[in-house]
Write a structure and sequence with these properties.
There is one protein chain. This protein is α/β, with parallel strands linked by helices and 231 residues long. The protein has two domains: 115 residues, 3-Layer(aba) Sandwich (Rossmann fold), CATH 3.40.50; 105 residues, 2-Layer Sandwich (Alpha-Beta Plaits), CATH 3.30.70.1450. Helix content is 34%, strand content 29%. The radius of gyration is 22 Å and the shape is elongated. The model has no long low-confidence stretch (mean pLDDT 89).
Length: 231
């Protein structure tokens, strides 16, 4: 199996988390930052960690950035540096370029230069918090293009203790059930605790418990209608 090769440029909390997660999943990761301390803190957890100015195209070439499957430009403190670095990475004809944007204006500028994959962690978190405040039954959400969402929601009381077939999420609510998270009683270290586990692909005869959490996919409008039955 060919190992995926990625570069993460900018090792603040956001970039650091991406680099470590990719490496933990078995990818070959080159982590880059101008801050030597950040580089040293991650060097044992990735394939290669180097410190240099990522706005220098010669330095980027020296690390074979052009051969990466994808490059994540996650510089958070200096948008001018992020923008220049992104332009250089695109100039090197990297297969896939993903850039970070802090706010609408930065996103707009990145779109203007041709970046198609843009991450806005602060905006995404803000939207998720707003969603939780408006609807406390939604535990987490992932917003997708064209007004679609994947949400983690508490099982409404009105559908608890019924089979998936009987609930008929697709027919009644125009939603697709992805999976179910259920609490199980476990014994660890002589103590009895409750742990939540995913049921995988649930069977049509699976009975939903009121304590279950379900993951569903659909439009924001249909999800809102569905969560209304929990109020």
């Amino acid at each position: 199996m060919v190992e995926n090769k990625f570069a993460v440029i900018g090792l603040g909390q956001f970039g650091d988390a991406i680099a470590r997660t990719l490496a933990r999943k078995g990818a070959e990761v080159t982590a880059i930052d101008s801050n030597e301390e950040r580089v040293q803190s991650i060097q044992d957890d990735v394939s290669l960690a180097v410190s240099f100015d990522a706005t220098d195209i010669k330095a980027l070439r020296s690390q074979n950035i052009q051969d990466m499957d994808a490059v994540v430009v996650a510089i958070g403190e200096n948008f001018e540096a992020l923008l220049l670095c992104t332009v250089l990475v695109m100039e090197l004809k990297v297969k896939r370029v993903i850039a970070r944007a802090n706010g609408v204006h930065q996103r707009m500028i990145l779109e203007k230069i041709g970046v198609t994959e843009i991450l806005s962690p602060e905006m995404d978190v803000g939207l998720a918090v707003a969603e939780r405040l408006l609807n406390p039954f939604i535990l987490s959400s992932l917003m997708l293009p064209d007004d679609y969402e994947i949400v983690e929601v508490k099982t409404p009381r009105t559908i608890a203790n019924r089979t998936i077939t009987d609930v008929n999420l697709r027919g009644k609510y125009n939603l697709n059930l992805i999976t179910v998270k259920r609490e199980f009683e476990m014994t660890k270290g002589g103590k009895t605790i409750m742990e939540q586990h995913i049921l995988g692909v649930p069977d049509a005869k699976t009975v939903l418990h009121e304590s279950d959490t379900i993951l569903v996919f659909g439009t924001a409008k249909d999800i809102e209608k569905f969560t209304e039955i929990n109020k």
